[in-house]
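Q: I have two molecules that I believe assemble together. Could you output structure tokens for the complex as a whole instead of separate predictions?
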Amino acid sequence: MAAISREEVAHLARLSRLAVTEEELDTFAGQLDVILQAVAQVGEVAAADIPPTSHSVPLTNVLREDVVTPCLTPEEALSGAPDAEEQRFRVPRILDEDVAS
Amino acid sequence: MTDVTAMTATQIAGLVATGAASAVEVTQAHLDRIAAVDGRVNAFLHVDTDGALAAARDIDARRAAGEELGPLAGVPVAVKDVLTTKGVPTTVGSKILEGWRPPYDSTIVERLRAAGTVMLGKTNMDEFAMGSSTEYSAYGPSRNPWDTDRIPGGSGGGSAAALAAYEAPLAIGSDTGGSIRQPGAVTGTVGAKPTYGGTSRYGLVAFSSSLDTPGPCARTVLDAALLHAAIGGHDPRDSTSIPAPVPDVVAAAKLGATGDLSGVRLGIVTEFGGEGAEPGVTAAFNEAVDTLTKLGAEIVEISCPHFRYALPAYYLIAPSECSSNLARFDGVRFGLRTGDDGNRSLEEVMSLTREAGFGPEVKRRIMLGTYALSSGYYDAYYGQAQKVRTLITRDFTAAFERVDALISPTTPFVAFPLGARTSDPYQMYLADLFTIPSNLYGGPGISVPCGLSDGLPVGLQVMAPTLADDRMYRVAAALESAVGTFTPPAL
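A: Yes, here they are, computed for all two components at once.
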């Protein structure tokens, strides 16, 4: 049985903000199925009482002195932006027309 | 003067220090070599000719003024395109960052400059460091100087190929699952993954933040150690940077080069034996084990029962972190924006931009990670993988109570032909079978050439405990002193 369906892959693509093509969906569904069946092997390990490791370095709350240090100018920060206006990132509309008006 | 491009970094630094060659001459020789061979190797995505010559002139001026310069002053270095370089294109091998010139330098690049090295340019890589062959680069694959119909490994295949093609004596890579060590192995060069947190990630374009580790690549173990010492150490701008000094890896490499390993205990992982390294790799590895024994090392077999789950755990953890990290490529602050016709919404433009900007492997991993993190699947996939990560760490800890370091082949197979594994992504993942455990644990690992199989290089991996990077350099340098270095046929 397949671990993941074509419909589920389409849903993942939407969640991932990827406007994939129909052809890609066919390819990815098969490939992700193979990968998911392989990685599902982690389920064989008896690990109910084992604490999870998110990170190999046990550092928490790394702070620095609250002093001003050099940082990017607005021009530098905006230098790679696809669109900018008045020292701000310019983006396509975020709200629907009827809500925005 | 003999051809400087054939020299080690140590030799080049010596020439520059004594004035026998200028940094400009050394840099120009490497730029000429790049111009002559890179059309066939495609190791570089960007050659910074003007910047390199300006840096070299600066070094020569400082030397002429009597300034005390570091042990790598005047030595050219190639930098993987995953590290930001102020004003110099940084693409991460992706179309989504094509043409981006970062407004700041990564810490590694800052330290390279402070050490007086000369950056030649940026090297090719699998897109966002996801891959084992550079075939997932949006700018075409790099080629292995040993056989240009074969892959140079990945993701840092460009850096490794640049070394093997004598385009640079030093290079920087980044290792998330083997991206420094595996390219080193298949190109007959040296590649070291430092302890996680031992080298700064500031300015390293993130793939999997709990695993990403920048590190040195070179043609000799001593050169790699010198580069490691130059770039390593605490960085307050990286909150996962370890506030501890870098072990004396240079002294360890020099100690190892004496060829004496008496008193050193090395473990061979039982579970790797049955995992199917190809016969030529196993033969070269076994011969290297005999050599290490002759050098005085004691070899024992060690069981690490959870290592067989390292690959599946990695391919849940790394894609999960990637799906989160790559959310920043949204067509707003940097890079590509596609489909903004004035009518489409931000979300539509974002989806079109990411569809156009990312290649297939990056899309697969983003979706895989999104799946592993989604409610209903989290516990069975990402959560379980994190528990397996704990068990793998415990396997390492137990092993290092009995031995000083673990050894294995670096990769299960030698350089494969271009195109051999691109149609089946999971076959590509298997290239990192032996390198992934160290990433999950966080300890250092190094690949050093140990022999040839049918005329292609085989690497031996040394894995050491966290913050004991010096141990792996000692073992690797000892092996190198016995087997020598490996030179590919003339290009």
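A: One point stands out. Residues 217 and 457 of chain B are 16 Å apart (CA to CA).
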